[in-house]
Amino acid sequence: MAVAQTAKRKKKRDWYRLGFIALFLLPALAILGTFMFYPIKETFRLSFMRSSGFGEEIYVGWRNYQRIFASPEFRQGFVNVFKWAFWSVAIQIPLAFFIAFTCVNFRTRIIGRLRGVYYLSNVLPSAITAMLGVFIFSPTSGVIKTFAKTTGWKWLESIDWLGNPKLAFWSLFALATWAYMGFGIIYLMANIEQIPTEIREAALIDGATQWQYAWRVVIPYVSYAIRVQAILATVGSIKLFDLPYMVTLGGPRNATVTLGITLYREAFLNWQYGRGAAIGVVIFLICLVITIFQFSFVNDHSATDQSI
Amino acid sequence: MSRSKLSVLLVMTLASLLILSSVALAKTTLTIWAVDGLELDDPHHYYVQNLVKTFLADNPDIDIDWVAFGSEGAALNNRIRVALAANVGPDIFQSWGGTFMGEFARMGKLLDLTEELSDVPTSEAAKAAMSYDGRLYGIAPFFAIAGLYVNEGIFEELGLEVPTTIAELEAVAEKLVANGIQPFAVGARDEWPILATYMYLVNRYGGTIFDDAVARKVRFDAEPFVQAGLKIQEWSKRGFFGNTPMSEGYGDAQLLMQTGQAAMQISGSWLCGLYADPNQTDQTIGFYAVPVLEGGVGKVTDLAGMTDVGFVATATAADKKDAVVRFLTYAMSVEAAEKEAGRVASIPGVNPPNRLTGMASDVFTQAETIQFWWDQNLPPALTTPVNLTIQSFLMDDTDVKAELARYELLVEDELGSVR
Question: Which CATH architecture best describes the domain B3-144+306-349?
Answer without folding.
Answer: 3-Layer(aba) Sandwich (3.40)
